[in-house]
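Q&A log
Question type: sequence-to-structure
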Amino acid sequence: MQHYYRTDVEQVVADITTCTQCHIPFLFAFNFELTAALFIKDPLNQKEVLFRTPLGTNSPIERNIANKDIELQFKIEDKSVYARKFNKVSEALHRGDTFLTNLTVKTPITTNKTLKEIFDGTDADYCLYVPEKFVCYSPERFVYINKEGRISTHPMKGTISASIPNAAQIILNDEKESAEHATIVDLLRNDLSINAEKVKVERYRYITSISTQNDTILQVSSEISGQLPKNWGSRTGQLLFDMLPAGSICGAPKKATVNLIKRAETEPRGFYTGVFGYYNGADLDSAVLIRFIEKDNGQVFYRSGGGITAKSNLENEYKEVMQKIYIPYAKPLFSDVICVRNGQLQRLDYHYRRMSNTCKTFYNKELSFECLNEGLASCSKEGLYKCRIVYGDKIESVTYTEYHPKQVNTVQFVYDDTIEYSHKYLDRSALTKLVENSGTDDVIIVKNGLITDSSFCNLIFEDAEGRKFTPKEALLKGTYREWLLEQGIVEETSIKKEDVYRYKFVYFVNAMRGIDDCTKMEINKLEDYQ
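Response status: OK
Response body:
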């Protein structure tokens, strides 16, 4: 990091302007005290300092890293210690020295992941990783400037757990939170007005949600915009610097409040609550460095804080500081496979239903299927083709390939009471590992003593009278399985491992392989049958 770390902040301000004028991409960051900076030209060409922004990234999110495996333990500073800081700020508020002060704490944490692994597994609009220094996954935009000179900022003030009944209405109607948010909006509107004209509030107090490893939280933001002069590129560095430190993480009035923060917190914040941003050669986007984990002398710390007003309650503010210690859940990608027979997509409504439900569950939005027919013409001839869809909050890819079934000659029972595959995740590593460890072509998974699925198929058991049953405890409710149930061809029932002997055959079915053309095995041919 040393060759990117700079203490000549004024020169960094000048370098930002020079690169903007020449349309050279760059990555930058300023610390809260404005005594140090980070500056990298053409940041996509290096892999040391990693970043993600809506404008670009040199390290796409590793969605297959399971955040449920990330452990984070902490013990926040004693309430009496926090109370001393809080009271110092509260006294200044009641004297009228400040209207709003952002008070932060530095909490020691332990985690089973490195800073790099946390960066890889986190899902946020703005992420920055500096090796052996810090990782940040910020939800809060600082300023965005497009090539036409439109500048906007999105202050974020107000946090509440989504698990609380009527959480959105509670946070929007809270008198203290409303006053705090109004103060910051006014401050940021004034900051924009230093360099921009026609400044106005585009959206006021709208709600966004963030999924964490423990909870989903709601946060309140506003959007303020203005128009910069046509020659804004000739002073980009200075107009950014004029707005620092960011109003949402210091308070108002800014100068007096920053001095109060230094007295109350007693130690520098460093890059925490500074800003970082990326310029792609045309537009510039930036974020406030919050949701921040740093390494200091071998110890790992989480930085968090909240806004204090004259109406603030010590207990509530103390809880908010703890609530903001989280790692945002990296929402996974999913896949779906649709059978294409003689140019016709099979059971399409079942696949639409499953994908729509998954998208709504994980992303709380509707999934568009407009691009699904792209490439369908390539497999319109007779035969069997596989349409494979990869999606998250939108469809990422659609591919059509000729289908060649996997040959299954040996199957073994395996036992795993923790496996979970209720949605068709793109990451199938847990299922693949079960097969690899078995030494057979496929496995029948037994969970808590009950039959579930194979590694890639639902199971249909047939008894001596020809009646067909599918395990009620199937890990994944497959589309073909659902069709069989709705048609009355099979029944759903719980099947214990020791009751398998009651059946004569087992069928391995999925979207590509129906009862008439799938693998069918005699029960007594299964390994570990007894």
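Response note: The radius of gyration is 28 Å.
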